[in-house]
TrEMBL record:
Protein name: Serine/threonine protein kinase
Domain of life of the native organism: Bacteria
GO terms for MF: ATP binding; protein serine/threonine kinase activity
Source organism of the structure: Deinococcus soli (ex Cha et al. 2016)
Organism lineage string: Bacteria, Thermotogati, Deinococcota, Deinococci, Deinococcales
Domain Protein kinase: from-to ranges: 12-250
Length: 250
């Protein structure tokens, strides 16, 4: 049965698919009151991810985060209804590269908003664990929201066995080793994005980025140090340093 047109939850009508999360299909939808929203549908065997995301995200209220509104079911599959993040995923929004050269103010505003979101999460004892372009939705002026909390959880959470979380290109070394993760691991992902914005490409272990005189380069290097103990772990301080180095008043 086609999903488009179905009414689920508290009168939410599915309209069309708009993307995929780490473990889900995301639909644009319209609530009973006519407001646009999103419905994130998980395969039945991944219902644990839906429960985890709801448990950790349903009481988050911040302008730079989507808000998870309710749990529901779509064709016997677990689903979550959330507010809608408008815009495009980060890499698609900044198609002209390097973004720091092409759209410096907009790109840095995106990072400021990402750091605002992470600061709020970290203050609540949570880490996102999957900072990547697909999870950052950016509007035309650079305003951004962080989405997709199905890997999120308490800082330094331990599991029965090492669990490698995140997406390889943006994964901190400790995440790649399956170690417990703190705020500095999320900020490593911010550093990778900052380096991409400066250089126009992701880091390659066999071919380091060339030297640049951009004043943001030292912050990029600091955020991506291999040893997590040597990295910044305070999103608010990283935000302040980003603005200081960039000479911007956000």
């Amino acid at each position: 049965m086609p999903l488009a047109g179905q009414v689920v939850g508290n009168g939410v009508r599915l309209v069309r698919p708009v993307g995929r999360g780490s473990h889900s299909l995301v639909y644009f939808a319209v609530a009973r009151d006519g407001q646009p929203c999103a419905v994130k549908i998980f395969p039945a065997h991944l219902g644990g991810y839906a429960e985890r995301e709801y448990d950790h995200a349903h009481d988050l209220h911040h302008p730079r985060l989507v808000r998870v509104i309710e749990r529901t079911v779509v064709d016997d599959q677990p689903a979550l209804v959330s507010t809608l993040a408008r815009g495009e995923v980060l890499f698609r929004r900044y198609a002209q590269r390097p973004a720091v050269q092409q759209e410096r103010r907009a790109f840095l505003l995106t990072l400021v908003h990402l750091l605002d979101a992470l600061g709020y999460l970290h203050e609540r004892g949570l880490v996102h664990r999957d900072i990547k372009p697909e999870n950052i939705i950016v509007e035309e002026d650079g305003s951004a929201k962080l989405v997709d909390f199905d890997l999120s959880g308490p800082a330094f959470e331990t599991f029965d066995a090492p669990l490698r979380m995140g997406t390889a290109a943006f994964q901190s070394p400790e995440a790649a080793r399956g170690e417990p993760l703190g705020p500095e691991s999320d900020l490593y992902g911010v550093g990778v994005l900052l380096g991409w914005g400066i250089h126009g490409s992701l880091p390659d272990p066999d071919e380091p980025h060339p030297h640049t005189l951009d004043p943001l380069q030292p912050l990029y290097l600091s955020l991506t140090r291999p040893d997590h103990a040597e990295r910044p772990n305070d999103a608010a301080r990283v935000r302040a340093e980003l603005l200081r180095l960039a000479g911007l008043p956000y």
